[in-house]
């Protein structure tokens, strides 16, 4: 289990009723995750770097059950996936690889060097790895997720990641 974050690691802003932006701005990647709450459940879009427990933060914001949707499978979007019971990604070989294997310390070593931080590097789990989340399920283009006032549609828009 990941440790609870230092008080200044996550920056949280309620962007609209039931919609939170969650920033991890102490790292070069300046990761943004989003939490949307509906009547019966919440959806977390991306789980961040995984340096600290995203689940603990989500539980501070809502008591609703929360499922995760990843925009793509780079380390800074899937870091805390293993903390959540329900995770979904786009159906792509890279998504399957990380869901079943996780991401090892060697692949992540560069991303935790002091120069990658915009603040003094906080104490991190040693070794820093991203745990597998083999319980993941996969979306196809056109799938939809209904969440009270929102309907999310899955689109494939590859950019800096092939998935």
Kindly list the characteristics that best describe this protein.
globular, two-stranded antiparallel sheet, alpha/beta, 163 residues, single chain, Metallo-beta-lactamase, Chain A
Structure described in brief:
The protein is an alpha/beta fold. It has 4 helices and 9 strands, in the order E-E-E-E-H-E-H-E-H-H-E-E-E. The chain has a single domain, classed as Ribonuclease Z/Hydroxyacylglutathione hydrolase-like (Metallo-beta-lactamase, Chain A), CATH 3.60.15.
How would you sum up this structure, described in words?
Helix content is 15%, strand content 26%. It has 163 residues and is an alpha/beta fold. It has a single domain (11-153), classed as 4-Layer Sandwich (Metallo-beta-lactamase, Chain A). 31% of the residues are buried.
Write the layout of secondary structure elements.
Blueprint: E1 11-16, E2 19-24, E3 31-37, E4 42-45, H1 54-61, E5 66-69, H2 75-78, E6 87-90, H3 93-101, H4 105-108, E7 137-139, E8 144-147, E9 150-153
Parallel strand pairs: 4-5, 5-6, 6-7
Antiparallel strand pairs: 1-2, 2-3, 3-4, 8-9
């Amino acid at each position: 289990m990941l440790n609870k974050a230092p008080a200044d690691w996550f920056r949280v802003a309620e962007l609209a009723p039931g919609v939170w932006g969650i920033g991890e701005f102490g790292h070069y990647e300046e990761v943004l995750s989003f939490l949307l709450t509906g009547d019966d459940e919440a959806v977390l879009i991306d789980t961040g770097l995984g340096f600290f427990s995203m689940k603990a933060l989500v539980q501070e914001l809502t008591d609703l059950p929360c499922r995760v949707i990843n925009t793509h499978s780079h380390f800074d979007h899937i870091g805390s996936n293993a903390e959540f019971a329900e995770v979904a990604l786009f159906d792509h070989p890279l998504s399957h690889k990380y869901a079943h294997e996780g991401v090892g310390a060697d692949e992540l070593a560069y991303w935790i060097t002091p120069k990658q931080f915009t603040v003094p590097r906080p104490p991190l789990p040693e070794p820093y790895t991203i745990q597998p989340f083999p319980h993941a399920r996969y979306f196809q283009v056109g799938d939809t997720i209904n969440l009270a006032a929102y309907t999310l549609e899955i689109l494939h828009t590859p950019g800096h990641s092939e998935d």
